[in-house]
Design a protein that fits this description.
4-stranded antiparallel beta sheet; Rossmann fold; Arc Repressor Mutant, subunit A; 249 residues; 6-stranded mixed beta sheet; transcription cis-regulatory region binding; WH-like_DNA-bd_sf; globular; transcription regulation
Length: 249
């Protein structure tokens, strides 16, 4: 199903809604279309993958329980060809599902049952992230002019949105890069979880703040950083995280 954007005069952001409960998918799609998004639907895992490749959406709303291929595997495969935002739908109380979903590259999650308005607000929140603003924004301009940041053998290029360790490229999701970008921009500053959420997600974001811990753990694994003796990201007990002082040059 393809829904027309509410405002045909401006290019609409594309959202792919994936859920085998067609009534739920159609309800979510209706609300997103009313909010001005161009919305498509998929009801199976294989269809979600093929539509993600064909449509190149900005956001995918992805249910975990799908026929043909579950949501975790769909997300894992999407991350091999797309860095779009992925918003996972999970059952209430299934903490392990949320952790697994985030570990394979989901950016955020929302638990069922939820209101369609809440989901639309969450989609709007991820698309309001600072790096999604127009090319003339002060942060974008600063990134274009900023040289790479060096932390030992870790190189972070804000302008190119790339990361490497000892010359080998490290593939991060959008959310993972944004967290590392915020931490490395102020390497002596200890950020609380809430501050990182405000910087990376949105000040209006609500949910479990420990979502930050899952993403930081994923970044550490990709960087080869041992959390017991970290070089790149330090845990500041009782506060949150800061860039590892042992890695600074």
């Amino acid at each position: 199903m393809q829904s027309p954007p509410a405002d045909a005069a401006a290019p609409a952001r594309r959202v792919l809604v994936v859920d085998d409960e067609r009534a739920l998918a159609q309800m979510v799609s209706t609300y997103l279309a009313r909010a001005g998004y161009s919305v498509s639907e998929a009801y199976t895992g294989p269809d979600a993958l093929s539509m993600a490749r064909a449509l190149d959406p900005d956001v995918i709303v992805l249910d975990l329980g799908l026929p043909g291929l579950d949501g975790v595997e769909v997300c894992r495969q999407i991350r091999t060809f797309s860095d779009c935002y992925v918003l996972m739908l999970t059952a209430r109380g299934d903490e392990m599902d949320r952790i697994i979903g985030l570990s394979v590259g989901a950016d955020d999650y929302i638990t069922k049952p939820f209101s369609a308005r809440e989901l639309v607000a969450r989609v709007q929140a991820v698309l309001r992230r600072p790096r999604q603003r127009g090319a003339g924004s002060s942060r974008d301009q600063a990134h274009r002019e900023e040289p790479a940041r060096l932390f030992g053998d870790l190189t972070i290029d804000p302008a190119g949105r790339s990361v490497s360790v000892a010359g080998s490229a490290v593939l991060l999701t959008r959310t993972e890069f944004d967290i590392l970008d915020v931490l490395s921009a102020r390497p002596k500053y200890a950020f609380s979880r809430r501050q990182l959420i405000d910087e990376v997600w949105d000040i209006a974001w609500v949910g479990d703040e420990h979502i930050v811990d899952v993403h930081v753990g994923h970044i550490r694994r990709k960087l080869g950083d041992d959390p017991t003796t970290p070089r790149y990201i330090d845990t500041v007990r009782g506060v949150g995280y800061r860039m590892g002082q042992g890695a600074a040059t």
